[in-house]
Write a structure and sequence with these properties.
With 266 residues, the chain is α+β, with helices and mostly antiparallel strands. Helix content is 22%, strand content 27%.
Amino acid sequence: MLPAEGEHLTTGWEPDLATGDTLVRQAVLVHASWPVRVARGAGRPWRSGPLWAGGWIGDRGALTNPVVLVQPLTHPEETLRDIGALFSPQAPYLLISAWPTPDLRPHGLALIGHPPLMVRFPSPRPDSLHSEADVREVKDFDELMVAERVLVEGYPMLELEPLKPGNLLGPTLLQPDTRVWLAWLDGQPAAVAAAHHHAGVTLVEYVATLPAARGRGAGAAVTWAATLADPAAPAVLIASDDGRPVYERLGYVAVERWTVWLRPER
């Protein structure tokens, strides 16, 4: 039924709107919370406000510094100037938007593409999930540093070299709402995944498998562990088109496509 004349309809993005208004709103808010959590855990600069949130996690790598819009981008020049103040002039950042944006090339950004937002609602374990991997939750800083090394070596667009322990997965990252898992093959670490719970959903992030371990189900197994960090909550993630079939086999469904821009290293 259409609203009556003069009746107010929310835009869905007012700052005081309930976090659970829509699944997409929950996905936006959990993605915005993630770089703040990672940067805070590593003692790095971060910002979180009514228009965007992000963290300066490193000085290199296309995927190292996510910035997530929490409102549609209506004043690009002003917002990008505000975002740029978080980072050094040379550092890259990745701008993630749930909405179409104006052309940001005149502002020095390059369009990465439109990756799918995927969601998995609580449901039984898929029959297709078979792996010889031993999946264990990371419990202390030493194990976290193993996970960090697997992540950096297995995530081709994440660059943090020379890597110092805790540069990425800092000592205070592990919290009740933020957990990490390692998959082991033949006694060696093979794959990593993280889960971050916020706004009523679980974000699955930092999924990476070492090149020598690929094709043996370790990545899927550790992703499944992160997906079930809260078995009663929906899980969300942004996938690449190449990675999408892996998540579909775990029961994820593509909901919509977001927009991703990159300010390159300078």
